[in-house]
Amino acid sequence: MREVNWVMAERSRLLASCHALGWHIMLLGFASVSDRVLAQVVPDTTLPLEERSQVSTGPLFQINGGAVRDRNLFHSFGQFSLTQGETAFFNNAANVTNIISRVTGGQPSKIDGLVQANGVANLFFINPSGVLFGQNASLNVGGTFLVTTAGAIQFGNQGSYSATNPAPPPLLTVNPSALLFNQLANQPIVSQARLQVPTGQSLALVGGNILLNRGVLLAQDGRVELGGLAGKGIVELDGNGSNLRLSFRAIERSLADITLVNQSEVNVRTGGSIGIHAQNFSMADRSILRGGIAEGQGILGIKAGDITIDALGAVVLSSGSFIANSTAPRGSGDSGDVTITASSVLVKDGSQINASTFGNGDGGTVTIRSQGAVIFDGDDRLSEDLIVRSGTFSRVNAEAIGNSGGINIFAESVAVTNGALLTASTLGQGNAGSINITTPGVVRFAGVSADDQFPSGAFSNVQGKAVGSSNGINITAGSLLLEQGAQLDASTFSRGNAGKIAIQVLDGIQLKGDSSGKLADPGGLYSFIGERAIGNSGGISLAARSLSVQNGAALVASTFGQGNAGDTSVQIAGPVSLDGQTTVLYNDGQTDIFSSGIFSSVSRIARGDSGQINLTADSLTVTNGAAIASSTLGQGKAASILIHAVGAVSLDGVGIDGFPSGIFSRVGAAALGSSDINVTAQSLSLTNGAQFQANTLGAATAGSIRINTTDDIRIAGKNAATGLASGLVSKTSTSGDGGDISVEARSLYLQNGAEISAQSLGQGKAGSIAIRLRNRLQVKDSQISTTAAQSAGGNIAIAARFIVLRGDSDLTTSVLSGTGGGGNITLSARAIAALDDSDILAFSRDGSGGMITLRTPAFFGFRYQPNAASSNTETLDGNGQVDVNASGRLRSGTITLPEVTIQTSRTPLPTEVVDTSRLIAHSCIARSPRQGSFIVTGAGGLPNQPDDLATTPFPTYAVTLEETVKSGAGNQEGTQENSLKNMSPQAVITEMDGIYRLESGALILGRACHGL
């Protein structure tokens, strides 16, 4: 997986961009709003005398005259500034639609008074030298107000009205169509004022750079546009006067910066829209962009306008600033969307982007598109008990009726850190939208809030008293990293279905739990149904090149209420690693230990089906107490665990609490069906206490364990700390039957205390064990057993080429009490060897012993002595010999041994040195009398040429076995000369495949003659 140091580097770069926007006062050329300015509303002489503006003396500067062109009125001033308490009153006629005023004197306008016009005329104010609105400035206009530092205004194809090249206006009878910036460096616009236009009208500031410093722009149900150019260009004006929109389509060069600081606000409630066009856009100090439907306002069925931010550079929200496009409580109507397009986005220090509904109507959709990084970081502590977390919200809140639109993020990389969150949830009556993240790079969720209470994450939930569904979390990325307690959560805690968590990455997925012990959950992916919830969870789906889960992180799909737990699908092209545990210390001093892994569960108080776990990978490693588990304890159907690995599956060790690494299925008392474990792999290794377990606690049958590998299976050892044996275990504790264990492989090796066990501790039958091997079973100091406390024992059936038991290794079926019969043991092999006090036992203490059948040409038993039917099986272990016993109090079972048994016995050994060559047949063993012949009449085939003789037949000879004539005890004579005794170095050595008994009763090593 790629390094994630990019986060700090990207954060530093974005912060640098934010600090770079601190130009706001120094670049203006006018120091601060507190500077007093001399009232100057002075007309210039650029218009014809009869069309010049006529201005009365202050403090009420009444402006008459001007050049009239149809419904357009043009004014031209050399200077235009107002101090506190002064008014500039444009005394236009009622039929005027647009008032266009320019300032040509080369000085910025400092306006700290009232600007007023008659009727509903739109007012366009142009000063290319800059504009400052002081904190006492205000507007009283009936239409749209646009202020700009452009050089001129274009009127379609009729011409322009210029402030940098002033001339009388031509016949400009149409509405303004564009702003013409013809300077290399355009001057800024600064506002510390509360500027408001009437309902439904537009308010636009077009620079140069734009700064709102404790400024407020209000356009209820209207539109606010902020934008500008750093150099030459054209900004088009779309729409009519009351719905003015800026278009920067033709801009190829950089735009200007826009900054909101010190609780500045842009407000377009109810129903209005906001457009931001900038090079860099920044909000700080709890500044606000506010849209949507206001409290108690709106009409059901209408939709509020959108908030749109287009930035060529960075968008930065800091220190508790937020963008909100929501339907407020008791508001009616749908809120609009929030759309941000930038090269990078940073939302930090408790800042938020919100498109939710608190009233009667749908929430909007938040969409972020970035060519670089998108980062949500940290929180803002408002008080000792109140922390506001950074993030993006699209929710149906409590008391709301409607749906939320969801969250969409498209970026080069995404980071959500230090308690920040993305949430698309419903707490009211309606469905929550989905969270969708698409990036070719890294998606990283990490850390907790400043008070160590809240993890970073993405949440798509049904909460509180909600009635509705969530639509889940979808991530498509280059790689995914969750660490330090971060979570992805798609759950339902009320009435409604939870959505799916679906993740698809090209590289790796890393889930690292919180090892500090501060959080209630270590972190991971969660798909829950809460205790009081009614609904189904959507489950979890992962697809990646690799998956690593560690430090207690987990994939969890569970139900604690009424509903089905979703399936968990993990499709990994490379390795899967599940490792370790973590400890959580709660405030009351209690601790809990969480295992890393993949879990599906139905709790005891739940009613619903568990979800299937389906894992496909190149390899699987489970270590240090990690687990894959399916648990159905409530009223519902159990589901299976399916694992397919192209390569190796390896499980090792136990956790800090002694819990084994393993794969587990558990079926509770109220559950239905069984939960099977199915593993297909190239090879399997269980070591140092690792286990597969399939348990039932009720009347349902425990799940089966089925393992199929193309290569070997190795199960070895006990954990040194706990003594827990590595193995495959099927167990029933009550009336349910135990599950079966089925193993198919090339070879199976058990050693150093390993076990394969099917147990019944209650009234249920013990499961059976079936092992089919293409090569050998080798058991050393280990056990294969079925045990029933008071019911019928399970069977053991093993088929292999060779079966070898060493080091006190036992094959056992037993019933400890009751009249149940002991299970049968059937061994099928070319040869079976039992050494070192290894026993084969099928007994029942109070019932009938099982049947023992050894299907093999030869059985090797070290000091083997058949036991009497009444033998006490408790004395058989540790007696220094191989025992085969099928005892039972009611009836002993049948023992079927091969005709050929090689064992050490009490027969006196001969004193002569054995000629080992006489124990080997140097030709194949023919199923015929002692001597015979085999005649070949020709080699077959055709001659090389038509006239040639046929191919010469080759001779053969009788294939015979050497005879051994026995005389008196201890003597041997009449031995025929062995012609093969002195073989040449080039002679072929024939591999033996078994032990054969001749007609004389002698045993000899040899191989069968195929085809005879």
SSE blueprint:
Elements: H1 6-20, E1 40-43, E2 53-55, E3 60-65, E4 67-69, E5 72-81, E6 87-90, E7 98-103, E8 109-111, E9 114-117, E10 122-126, E11 131-133, E12 138-140, E13 145-148, E14 152-154, E15 160-162, E16 178-181, E17 189-191, E18 194-196, E19 202-207, E20 210-213, E21 216-218, E22 223-228, E23 233-238, E24 245-247, E25 258-261, E26 265-267, E27 273-278, E28 281-283, E29 288-293, E30 307-311, E31 314-317, E32 322-327, E33 338-342, E34 344-348, E35 352-354, E36 365-370, E37 373-377, E38 379-381, E39 387-389, E40 391-393, E41 406-410, E42 413-417, E43 421-423, E44 435-438, E45 442-446, E46 457-459, E47 473-477, E48 479-483, E49 487-489, E50 501-505, E51 508-512, E52 524-529, E53 540-544, E54 546-550, E55 554-559, E56 568-572, E57 575-579, E58 581-585, E59 591-595, E60 597-602, E61 613-617, E62 619-623, E63 627-632, E64 641-645, E65 648-652, E66 662-667, E67 677-681, E68 683-687, E69 691-696, E70 705-709, E71 713-716, E72 727-732, E73 741-745, E74 748-751, E75 755-760, E76 769-773, E77 776-780, E78 783-788, E79 796-799, ...
Parallel strand pairs: 3-6, 5-7, 6-9, 7-10, 8-11, 9-12, 10-13, 11-17, 13-19, 17-20, 18-21, 19-22, 20-25, 21-26, 22-27, 25-28, 26-29, 27-30, 28-31, 29-32, 30-33, 31-34, 32-35, 33-36, 34-37, 35-40, 36-41, 37-42, 40-43, 41-44, 42-45, 43-46, 44-47, 45-48, 46-49, 47-50, 48-51, 49-52, 50-53, 51-54, ...
Antiparallel strand pairs: 1-5, 2-3, 4-5, 14-15, 14-16, 16-23, 23-24, 38-39, 58-59, 90-91, 92-93
